[in-house]
Specification:
Elements: H1 3-29, H2 32-61, H3 68-96
Length: 105
Amino acid sequence: MGPLFSAYVLAMLLGVVFIPLFVIALAILRSATRAFVLSSTFTMGAMIGFFLGVLAGSWLLEVHPEQSGTLVLLFTFAGASAVAGGVIALWLLGKMSGNPPWRRS
């Protein structure tokens, strides 16, 4: 994997997950630091959840690259794992911090 692929993945992650979450959190919370913490925590958790979902899904589903049906199932599983990873990361952030970032002060 070259640096171009890494830059492409980073740009996709920023454009699809981080920036929309940041804009929504900024509109709701009205605090740029809290919106940044909330969106970056969810993005990191979603990224970890996606990669773990791909690893677990390829092991559980026995993916064969020549069959497109198994790839669809794999990426559906990985997408659900990404959402779960982001939610778990936010839950852990709320448990660890005394003042969760999603509450207005």
